[in-house]
From TrEMBL, chain A:
It comes from the Bacteria. This is Uncharacterized protein. PROSITE patterns: PROKAR_LIPOPROTEIN.
From TrEMBL, chain B:
Residues 12-145 form the Haem-binding domain. The keyword Flavoprotein does not apply. Transmembrane segments: none annotated. Gene3D superfamilies: Cytochrome P460 (3.50.70.20). This is Cytochrome P460. Residues 1-18 form the signal peptide. Keywords: Signal. It comes from the Bacteria. It holds the Pfam family Cytochrome_P460.
């Protein structure tokens, strides 16, 4: 009678102990990660971050990414050469749960892509993210202008 | 019967004798009253004074039970460590941005439920903060101490900057790592407490660890670089990265950095990349602020998962 009882209590204790360990998986910001590319040609998060911006009214935050050719601008301030690909990923911001005073990315609202094709053509494409809201006004000409004029975040 | 009395007598005299051994903090009456914190509303100053000053300033009110050996040794060690982490006695000598940083640091200590120490509030219930007092601090900071972006339009685009500058080592011997701008962004943060905008870069080992979910602890070889820029208001109302402030590193090597929680800590400031820190042990400041994350290997950032979406 006693043995099964002790045998039963031990796993219970172990279960309780392991159950209280901090959960590591929820430290990854999955909500803000780009996890599927149904229509994206590539994952912008894999590219090199070049600039950041905040839109206080919309409470969003954006990062400008570039491919290898585009990031030449980071080093020497050169214009974007043919073959450059830029992405502007915009997230809804949220309060950092670990630091009062900080805001961090929540879900993606929009992803925009500009590529510098042969003979000076620039193509613009736009993708809705999970936090897209319908009344966002995305005028292509205006958006191109904004994306191309974001000041690069320079560091020594 | 008699033996029992003898034992009790012996124990009593031991306890009394022990009272002769006391930490120097008590004997050398170092406690001098600190002035009311200047430049903040009286209620805010009052809350911090009541709940924090015993351990975080030179103004310690020793209660009779705090003076008993061995309790007094515990109290003295709290004061020593507490003042090392945060010392309100320095308030008057600090400039406004440093004072503001101190207030945010203090509030985050409270919000992370680390402070005030629970062993202390058990005996000093008045020091416990209720929600009203926490909201008072929070609202004061939100309404008065939020950094606004500068409104000059930046026109530098990285051209004509000095090339190949010689960067000095950090006081703890860590050498500068110039290549972090090729790493991936594992997060970005907007800091309204000090008016900066940041990118947190992770090296390839860090990105791989995130992808495999092995981030607690982070593997040896992981490196984070965090850059901060001043916020700058653009003409269109957006805020951009303006002047470069600093870059900070955390380098994981359990053996090499065993004395500093398994991480090498270093910071370089300004366009000239001047190493930060006056002494070899400057990194205790980094560790003390990162301490609430000790169950997360001292890392604050909740990283993005960066996948190669074309694979599979």
């Amino acid at each position: 009678m006693r043995l099964p009882f002790t045998a039963g209590v031990f796993p219970l204790i172990i279960l309780l102990m392991t159950g209280c360990k901090p959960n590591t998986t929820d430290r990854i910001n999955n909500a803000a990660s780009i996890t599927s590319t149904s229509r994206l040609p590539e994952n912008p998060l894999e590219m090199t971050p070049m600039a950041v911006s905040l839109q206080p009214d919309a409470k969003t935050m954006s990062t400008l990414y570039g491919n290898g050719i585009a990031t030449k601008r980071l080093r020497d301030g050169a214009d974007y050469a043919t073959g450059s690909v830029l992405y502007l990923v915009t997230w809804k911001g949220k309060a950092d749960p670990d630091w009062f005073g900080a805001r961090i990315p929540d879900r993606v609202t929009t992803i925009e892509r500009i590529s510098f094709d042969q003979n000076g053509q620039k193509s613009y494409a736009f993708f809705k993210g999970p936090a897209w809201y319908a009344d966002t006004d995305m005028k292509e000409e205006e958006r191109r202008g904004i994306i191309l004029s974001i000041p690069i975040a320079t560091s020594p | 019967m008699k033996l029992k009395f003898k034992i009790i007598g012996c124990m009593l005299s031991l306890v009394l004798l022990a009272q002769l051994i006391r930490p120097e903090e008590i004997s050398s009456v170092k406690t001098k009253p600190v002035k009311r914190l200047a430049g903040v509303p009286e209620e805010v100053a009052k809350v911090l004074e009541t709940s924090c000053f015993d351990c975080h300033s030179s103004q310690t009110r020793w209660r009779w039970f705090d003076r008993l050996t061995p309790v007094n040794f515990l109290v003295a060690s709290h004061i020593r460590d507490g003042r090392k982490a945060l010392d309100f006695s320095q308030w008057d000598s600090l400039a406004t941005p440093q004072r503001n940083a101190m207030l945010y640091f203090a509030l985050n200590g409270i919000l992370s439920k680390e402070m005030p120490l629970s062993s202390y509030t058990a005996l000093h219930p008045a020091a416990k903060l209720d929600q009203k007092e926490i909201d008072l601090l929070r609202n004061y900071l939100l309404n008065n101490v939020v950094s606004k972006p500068a409104s000059v339009e930046s026109n530098s685009n990285g051209a004509d900057k000095p090339f190949m500058m010689e960067v000095k080592k950090s006081p703890n011997g860590i050498a500068y790592l110039p290549n972090y701008r090729n790493w991936k962004a594992i997060s970005t943060t907007e800091r309204f407490d000090n008016g900066t905008i940041r990118i947190i870069f992770g090296n390839p080992i860090a990105v791989e660890a995130i992808h495999e979910g092995k981030t607690n602890p982070w593997p040896d070889g992981t490196i984070f670089a965090k850059t901060a820029w001043k916020q700058q208001q653009g003409k269109d109302g957006s805020v951009y990265a303006g002047q470069f402030v600093q870059v900070e590193f955390m380098i994981k090597d359990v053996k090499r950095y065993a004395g500093t929680k398994g991480w090498g800590w270093a910071r370089w400031k300004g366009e000239n990349l001047l190493p930060y820190g006056k002494t070899v042990k400057f990194d205790s400041e980094c560790i003390s602020c990162h301490r609430p994350e000790r169950d997360n290997d001292y890392v604050f950032t909740r990283p993005l998962d960066i996948r190669d979406l074309n694979k599979k």
